[in-house]
Amino acid sequence: MAPSKLKIALLQLDSFPTKQAAISNALTQIRSAAKAKGAKLVILPECWNSTYSADEFERSAEKIPGGETSVALANTAKELGIWLVGGTYPEVDAGKIHNTCAVFGPQGEFIGKYRKMHLFDMDIPGICTFSESSVLTPGKEFLTFSVEGLNVGIGICYDQRFPEFAAIHRQLGTDFLIFPSAFDTYTGPMHFELIARARALDNSMFVALCAPARDTSKDYVAYGYSTLCDPWGRVVCRAGEHPEMLVVDLDLTLLEDIKKKIPVLKQKRNDVYELVRKK
After folding, report:
1. The dihedral of CA 246, 109, 70, 120: what is its sign?
2. Which of 40, 46, 47, 113 is catalytic?
3. Residue 212 near residue 46, CB atoms below 8 Å
4. 116 is known as an active-site residue
5. Residue 252 near residue 3, CB atoms below 8 Å
6. Is the CB of residue 99 less than 8 Å from the CB of residue 156?
7. Is the pLDDT of residue 140 over 80?
8. Cβ–Cβ under 8 Å, residues 130 and 120
9. Largest CA distance in the chain
10. 121-124 and 110-115: which strand pairing?
């Protein structure tokens, strides 16, 4: 029988001046989440081991899963016997740079990687201007895996603004969609929680947005406020601006509960419209 609860942890990590210091801090927090809090699935934020900037992506990029960050995460997942969603860190492959999330299993095995599909190109003059496409190459493959019978999918930050992305995951059977996310401080207060709730409600799934802590010394200041929503579109827990660990038991009975009470997934008019995933 599948378990009715799954203890997870979202780690809203602080920034550090070097990749090595960031990795060391992450491993400490992962061990605390697993050993002290009992988390079986631990989630890291977007761009946690390097500064979020176009220049830094290329300088910090490494092979996945062969690079130092992946090796450290794989070894720690095996040591603790946990599932580990490694947030994102820059990946270099065939001369191209990707913003990539790697996932590791409880034996330290490499489950797979997801490359950010929708790149963050935004220009709000005088407030926030960023162009990921100036250095990053977008991915085109979805990633799903199973944790104790729970179907989990991965997106990255800007992907959540595209409802089709989450809807495809619903078609793939995803029940828990995780977005390592570093929203900016202008759109964050307006949209961060709103999008999380919308994607959860629209698709009858859990949605987690795991953010880095806010660091006002950086050129790009992340919003923070890591958030977890349930399939009813309710906020289960939310962090603040500072480094924080959110630990919660996912009530997996809610997945079937909402599907029975509000069966929108069975009521779609496929005779009138449809969403197609291209191979």
Report:
1. negative
2. 46
3. yes
4. yes
5. yes
6. yes
7. yes
8. yes
9. 55
10. unpaired
Distance of alpha carbon 250 from alpha carbon 223, whole angstroms: 24
Q: What's the token pair of residue 17?
A: 């001046």
Contact 166, 201 (CB under 8 A): no
Task: Name the residue among 181, 141, 143 with its Cα closest to residue 161.
Answer: 181
139/74 Cα distance (integer angstroms):
22
pLDDT recorded at residue 96: 97
Annotated catalytic residue, options 7, 19, 116, 210: 116
User: pLDDT class for 2, splitting at 50, 70, 90?
Assistant: low
Q: Which residue has the tokens 């790009």?
A: 220
Number of CB atoms found within 10 A of residue 64's CB: 21
* Residue 109 is a catalytic residue: no
User: What one-character DSSP code corresponds to residue 13?
Assistant: P
Select which of 157, 210, 229, 244 is catalytic.
Answer: 157
Does 260 participate in catalysis according to the annotation?
no
Q: For residues 78 and 57, give the distance between their C-alpha atoms in angstroms, rounded to a whole number.
A: 28
Confidence of residue 237 (pLDDT cuts 50, 70, 90): very high
